Structure formats: C-alpha cells, structure tokens
Structure to design on (454 residues):
C-alpha cells in the first residue's frame, strides 16, 4: 500500500467511527472515570442573545493566554477589550502554582491598564480552562490531566478555580472567579448568544473537543441533587471527544501516527485528537516525509534534510495551509514553504513539491472526515428528535478557520453519514472569540444560578 492509500478514510469507516463515538458517549454519561469524560458542566441553560453586563474572562488553552473584558449589550452584540500574555515552555512544564500565579498577575496587569471597572469594585470572572476537568459545580473542578503539550507539575487532582482564587487573593486582586468554562462550552454559549440558539460548540484548533446540551435524565452518573429540576431539564455536557478510541478499535492508525503518539508527552491518550488537531497535523506530515526521504521518494536530491524536518513539532500545521493555497497541480506556494523549511531551491524537484502538497491535503482531508464523525455522533439524535428546523453549530479554532477546504470536507462527510436532508439543515458558524465571550456569558449564568462566591 502506498502512503496515499493508508491515509484514505472510506465511507464505511465513517460509520464505524461515528458508532464507536456514540458508544463511548453513552458509557461516559453513565459512569465516572471513563476516557471520554462527558463532563457535566452545571450550566443549565443557553443564552438567547438578550443577556447584558460587563464581565472579565481569562482564557488558557493554547499558545497564548488572554484576559478580556466583555461587554454584552443584550442585542446579540458585544464589545471586547483584550490583552494576550505569552505562556512560555517553562510555565507549561514547571510547577502548577507558578503557572497560576502568573495568570493572576496577568489579570492584575489587565485591570490596572485596560479595565473600565471602578476602583474598589470586585469584578466577576469566567475562567476558560481548556483541559479536562472533573467538574463538581459551575465554579469548581479538579484537573483530570493536561493535554496539548502542557505538563505542569503537581496539577492533577487540584481544584483549578480554588487555585486561581488563592493566587488572586494573595496578590490582592479584587476579582471573584465565578465560573469555570471549557472552550467548547464557551463557544456553544457565545454562538447561542450571537445566533439566538445553538446545538453544538466545537473546537478544531490546537486541540479538538465538543460540547452540547443534554437531557438531565440521560446523564445517569449525576447525583440527584444535580438533577434538580428547578434549575432546568437540560445541562451542557463537555464531551472531551479528543480521547475517543484509545484502544484503537476503529481508528485507522498509520505508522506515522503511531510515532507521533509514542513520542508525545501523553502516549495512548487523546488518540482521536492526535489525528485531527493543529498541534499534530504538521507533525504527522513531518514523520511521513522523513520516512519517504529515507526511501528516496522525497527530496532524494539531498542526502540530509534541513533541521526543521529532524525536530519534533518542527513543521507547523500553518505551513500545510500555506501549501494548500496551490490548487491541484500548482506548486508556487509549496516551493516557498519548502524554502522556509530550509530546503534550497535547487534540491526541490516539481515532484517533491507536489508530494508535499498532496500529503498535506490527504492528512487534512482525513482530519476533516474524522471531525465529521464526532459532529455526526452528536447531531444524529438531534436530527431524528426534531425532524425540522436548523441545527446551529458554532465552531472555533485555527484548523477550521485557516485550513483550506476543512469545513467543506466536514460537510461532505456529514452528508455521507447523516444524509442530504439532515446535512442541509446544519448551519455552521464561526464563533470567533468564543472562549472570551462564552466565559463572560457563563459568569452571568453562574450569578443567575445563584452560585456563591468562594
Ligand atoms: C482538551 C479540551 C479542549 C480541546 C480544545 C483538548 O486537548 O482536552 O478540554 O476543549 O483541547 O481546546
């Protein structure tokens, strides 16, 4: 089998993977401690666009951290003022409390330089923390484990809201952390606010994951108090679908995926995410190209590949997007990309550039088809319960935003899995700023639900 054949996900596989995801979803709704955590978020409702107020949000989940002040004007619109703060490798892998002190310090910096809030006033904050957390209330939860290259020490099992609040208190910063939000939940809330209702919020960025609104009766592992019908009959569930099929029962894992996984800081975890998200797509391509070079099928004019090809995560997924600006058969952008990776022009044959572009396309298409399986797993029951009306989905993240034809490939695969009628009803919207606005909406929801300050 050549490499292209190994990267193809046929229609049959789409159904198998979708079924496996649904099986893991229902297992996760029934039991605690499952791989696909199906985390109850204690968010009992979605915004309808009439919400008002000013809230702070802190967003940690990828390369940067953001502090935002969000003003919701109650007519589906908002304004946002924000500042990015760099998260260094040392912070990602050092002591957990160091990372959280830095976050508190950044909030302090934002308040003194950018915030419109009055002196002496305490400010409510929604905390978007985009990692799996075992949530016990809308404003508390213990870290299950880091993903996406984060590996701060002594973190697992710690309550992330309590830790952040302690750090804020120690630094005398007048902020109350009132809500803990996953970025998918934030995206769902933000998209619901902006479009007057939504069904799913999902991220296809550095990592991947999705959240949706589930009937309380289906979340069997919840204790009776949490099922309190006064609060509403539904709750947002954060699926953590990135952790699907760690047993590799249905995912067609290639030898290059296998190397990416075993060299990662969390082998045999996040198996689904490692085939889909921006942190890994470039790395899969790099491992494949190194292999093809050894077999003299790629850049065979040069005996040694430039450093980027020999460095873990040395090939950024953004370069695949750049290469795919070339349409089929063209190679202008791809040659520039190869130049940026340190390959000298005389070593690049037309064939090499085409191989780079084609492999990027196949790895991206495969990721989009897997992504569709996860979306279809959630949409399917919705589509059959309500046979009419739009199914609004809010998506965010660098892959969905920048990877050429990713959304179209998702749609094509949804069409295969769900059929043409259902696919036509799916309205996909880019929920940019989802995490920031969503955290503000979640802070508002927490206050509405009467959550006590810590
Ligand atoms: C995390 C999720 C998050 C997703 C997207 C995954 O690695 O486990 O909590 O929502 O990335 O950021």
């Amino acid at each position: 089998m050549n490499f292209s054949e190994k990267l193809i996900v046929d229609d049959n596989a789409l159904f198998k993977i979708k079924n496996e995801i649904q099986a893991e979803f229902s297992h996760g709704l029934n039991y605690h401690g499952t791989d696909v955590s199906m985390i109850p978020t204690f968010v009992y409702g979605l915004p309808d666009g009439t919400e008002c107020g000013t809230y702070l949000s802190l967003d940690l989940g990828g390369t940067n951290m953001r502090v935002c002040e969000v003003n919701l004007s109650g007519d589906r619109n908002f304004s946002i003022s924000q500042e990015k703060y760099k998260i260094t490798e040392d912070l990602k892998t050092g002591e957990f409390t160091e990372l959280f002190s830095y976050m508190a310090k950044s909030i302090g910096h934002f308040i003194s330089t950018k915030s419109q809030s009055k002196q002496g006033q305490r400010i409510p904050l929604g905390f978007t923390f985009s990692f799996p957390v075992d949530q016990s209330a809308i404003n508390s939860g213990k870290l299950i484990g880091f993903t996406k290259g984060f590996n701060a020490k002594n973190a697992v099992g710690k309550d992330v809201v309590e830790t952040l609040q302690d750090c804020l208190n120690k630094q005398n910063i007048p902020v109350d952390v009132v809500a803990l939000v996953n970025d998918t939940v934030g995206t769902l809330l933000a998209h619901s606010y902006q479009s007057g209702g939504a069904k799913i919020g999902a991220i296809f960025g550095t990592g991947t994951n999705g959240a949706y609104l589930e009937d309380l009766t289906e979340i069997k592992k919840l204790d009776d108090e949490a099922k309190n019908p006064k609060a509403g009959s539904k709750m947002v569930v954060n699926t953590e679908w990135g952790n699907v099929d760690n047993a590799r029962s249905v995912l067609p894992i290639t030898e290059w995926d296998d190397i990416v996984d075993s060299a990662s800081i969390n082998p045999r975890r996040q198996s689904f995410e490692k085939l889909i998200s921006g942190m890994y797509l470039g790395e899969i391509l790099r491992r494949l190209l190194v292999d093809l070079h050894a077999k003299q099928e790629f850049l065979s004019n040069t005996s040694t590949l430039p450093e980027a090809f020999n460095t873990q995560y040395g090939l950024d997924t953004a370069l695949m997007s750049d290469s795919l600006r070339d349409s089929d058969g063209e190679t202008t952008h791809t040659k520039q990309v190869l130049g940026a990776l340190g390959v000298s022009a005389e070593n690049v044959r037309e064939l090499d550039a085409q191989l780079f572009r084609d492999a990027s396309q196949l790895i991206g298409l495969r990721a989009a088809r897997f992504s569709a399986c996860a979306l279809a797993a959630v949409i399917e029951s919705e589509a059959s319960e309500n046979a009419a009306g739009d199914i609004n989905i809010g998506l965010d993240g660098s892959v969905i935003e920048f990877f050429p034809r990713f959304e179209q490939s998702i749609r094509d695969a949804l069409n295969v899995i769900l059929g043409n009628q259902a696919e036509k009803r799916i309205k996909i919207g880019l929920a940019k700023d989802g995490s920031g606005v969503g955290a503000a909406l979640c802070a508002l929801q927490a206050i509405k639900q009467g959550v006590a300050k810590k």
